[in-house]
Amino acid sequence: MAAMISRRRLRVFYLNLVKQSGTPESISRGVAVGFFTGFVVPFGLQMVAAVILAFVLKARKIPALACTWVTNPWTVPFIYPFQCLLGAKLSGGELGWKTANDLFGTFLKERTFESFTNLGTEILVPFFVGGVFLGLLFALCSYFASYGMIISYGKRVEAKLARRLARQSVKSD
Predict the structure, then answer these.
(1) Can you list the residues of the chain whose pLDDT is less than 70?
(2) What is the pLDDT at residue 1?
(3) Residue 4 pLDDT
(4) Would residue 141 count as lying in a domain?
(5) Domain range spanning residue 81?
(6) 159 part of a folded domain
(7) Using CA atoms in the order 68, 70, 75, 81, what is the torsion angle rounded to 10 degrees?
(8) Beta-carbon-side half-sphere exposure of residue 132 (alpha carbons within 13 Å)
(9) Exposure on the CB side of residue 151, measured as CA atoms within 13 A
(10) Residue-level pLDDT at 8
């Protein structure tokens, strides 16, 4: 997994994010939408939901699509059971790690919407409660973090341009 999340890949993701066209607000809204749908919407339907939500909220669609991949084939086996445990705690239910893993076993093997709906309310209610909690938490944090990164990058680019223009004006004098 460490090879999948390399410094180079993070840098490429960062540069693609901060160089997006659009306002910092709309790009950051897209990031938040992506993280929210990544946790709330079941694997497989996230990208469609992210595009629809991004359109409704006037958010950038590319960051929304990219950030839904917070849940991917490598993270789902860890995030979904944790999300269900958290949802069970928040909703007052009882659910253990082994039970959550066992119930998700079939879904994680098949990864179909039908296998997801077959999980039953014992797991689906905690899934959505935990998903909304994590989705809101990550959406808020990612909105402000990405907004700060975009603004900071813009200021650095402007400062670099100003220095370059100042050097050129000194040379032409």
Answers:
(1) 1-5, 173
(2) 42
(3) 63
(4) yes
(5) 25-146
(6) no
(7) -80
(8) 9
(9) 9
(10) 85
The pair of three-digit structure tokens given for residue 86, joined into one six-digit string: 């958290």
Under 8 Å between Cβ of 149 and 14:
yes
Is residue 132 a part of any domain in this protein?
yes
Closest C-alpha among 57, 53, 27, 56 to residue 148: 27
Q: What's the domain count of the chain? A: 1
Q: What is the pLDDT of residues 71-119, one digit of tens each?
A: 988 888 889 889 999 999 999 888 887 877 777 777 777 777 777 777 8
Identify which of 63, 74, 86 has the alpha carbon closest to the alpha carbon of residue 132.
86
Give a yes or no: residue 65 inside a domain.
Answer: yes
- pLDDT in the model for residue 173: 62
At 3 the pLDDT is 46
